[in-house]
């Protein structure tokens, strides 16, 4: 997009504010073992976590930058993707003035965060095959529309959005296009990370909660231009990612071979489940998926949900979501868990 200037989207108070400067921002040389740190009012007795963590998570960013072929200044880390998304609202959306566009059925936190930040959420339903309705989206845009949220692969449907649709939005929308790639590691499609330099209004969020198996440490990732990341760094809390999370993330990121084996196993288990679902009589439709879950349409979602609960298996009933009447979302488990699910589905069929 030509003539894109992020300053035209930043809230006025954010433009003029002076960010908080922590002790660890002012002295950044963490490798000097002989230094005595008396600058942050910390407890001096070693416990492994008695010191504040690196506020910029430099070691984690360095690994991610190398693995993704990006620069560290194109990365922001947060306490889960939800904090990253919340920072986007705080940085770019003026309360009670601006609006965003979301595409239900989709991840529910976009709407929740819009409400928390007093930002209007303009919902434009996906098509019946769960693709963005581009004309309707662009028709919903006005001068106060700051962001469009795309979840691809989409939750709860599992499908990815067409490249043509995404490019059309990136080229024609003057605000920010946020692509949530929480499930991208399970997809055959390439990440939109490769297009960051092409589209200055592109923001991509990812997570270590899914393919990396670190949901418990809460680490979300935002990739964008250095200009956008600079704005977000200005308003983020100083120590938003704790020391234990940073250490565990580094350990896991170093084990690329094991991560890939787990991803491959999940995809293989997903294919096994899809084959069995074809034999389940109460399943009327199996939606295409490129995630670690499958969405199915059944005769009576509440009935089938309760039957599986009785067999000790917890799934997600998505029947209350737009376009998802009588649907169930099945997460892919281990081979043993998957077999129990498949046996239970056949037993109640």
TrEMBL record:
InterPro entries: Aminotrans_II_pyridoxalP_BS, Aminotransferase_I/II_large, HisP_aminotrans, PyrdxlP-dep_Trfase, PyrdxlP-dep_Trfase_major, PyrdxlP-dep_Trfase_small
Source species, domain of life: Bacteria
Pfam families in the cross-refs: Aminotran_1_2 (PF00155)
Keyword terms of this UniProt record: Amino-acid biosynthesis, Aminotransferase, Histidine biosynthesis, Pyridoxal phosphate, Transferase
PROSITE patterns: AA_TRANSFER_CLASS_2 (PS00599)
Cofactor field: pyridoxal 5'-phosphate
GO MF term list: histidinol-phosphate transaminase activity; pyridoxal phosphate binding
Coiled coil feature spans: none
Pathway: Amino-acid biosynthesis; L-histidine biosynthesis; L-histidine from 5-phospho-alpha-D-ribose 1-diphosphate: step 7/9; Lipid metabolism
Sites of N6-(pyridoxal phosphate)lysine modification: 210
Domain named Aminotransferase class I/classII large: residues: 46-345
EC number: 2.6.1.9
Gene Ontology biological process terms in this record: L-histidine biosynthetic process
Catalytic activity annotation: L-histidinol phosphate + 2-oxoglutarate = 3-(imidazol-4-yl)-2-oxopropyl phosphate + L-glutamate
NCBIfam families (alphabetical): hisC
SUBUNIT field: Homodimer.
HAMAP family: HisC_aminotrans_2
Family: Belongs to the class-II pyridoxal-phosphate-dependent aminotransferase family. Histidinol-phosphate aminotransferase subfamily.
Annotated protein name in UniProt: Histidinol-phosphate aminotransferase
Species: Flavobacterium degerlachei
């Amino acid at each position: 997009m030509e003539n894109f200037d992020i300053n035209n989207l930043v809230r006025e108070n954010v433009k003029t504010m002076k960010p908080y400067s922590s002790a660890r921002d002012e002295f950044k040389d963490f490798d000097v073992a002989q230094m005595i740190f008396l600058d942050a009012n910390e407890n001096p007795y070693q416990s492994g976590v008695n010191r504040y963590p690196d506020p910029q998570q430099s070691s984690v960013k360095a690994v991610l930058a190398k693995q993704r072929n990006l620069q560290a200044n194109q990365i922001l880390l947060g306490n889960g993707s939800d904090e990253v998304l919340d920072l986007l609202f705080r940085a770019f959306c003026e309360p009670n003035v601006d609006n965003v566009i979301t595409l239900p059925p989709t991840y529910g936190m976009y709407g929740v965060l819009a409400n928390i930040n007093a930002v209007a959420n303009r919902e434009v339903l996906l098509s019946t095959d769960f693709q963005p309705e581009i004309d309707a989206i662009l028709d919903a845009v006005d001068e106060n529309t700051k962001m469009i949220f795309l979840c691809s692969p989409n939750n709860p449907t599992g499908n990815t959005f067409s490249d043509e649709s995404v490019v059309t939005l990136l080229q024609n929308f003057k605000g920010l296009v946020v692509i949530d790639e929480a499930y991208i590691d399970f997809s055959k499609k390439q990440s939109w990370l490769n297009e960051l330099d092409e589209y200055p209004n592109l923001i991509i969020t990812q997570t270590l909660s899914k393919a990396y198996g670190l949901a418990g440490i809460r680490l979300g990732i935002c990739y964008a231009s250095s200009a956008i990341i600079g704005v977000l760094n200005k308003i983020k809390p100083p120590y938003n990612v704790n020391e234990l999370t940073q250490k565990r993330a580094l350990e896991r990121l170093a084990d690329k071979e094991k991560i890939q084996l787990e991803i491959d196993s999940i995809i293989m288990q997903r294919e096994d489940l899809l084959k069995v679902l074809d034999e389940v009589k109460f399943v009327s439709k199996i939606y295409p998926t490129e995630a670690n879950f499958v969405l199915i349409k059944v005769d009576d979602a509440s009935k089938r949900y309760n039957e599986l609960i009785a067999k000790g298996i917890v799934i997600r009933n998505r029947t209350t979501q737009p376009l998802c009447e009588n649907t169930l979302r099945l997460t892919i488990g281990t081979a043993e868990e998957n077999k129990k699910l498949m046996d239970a589905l056949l037993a109640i069929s």
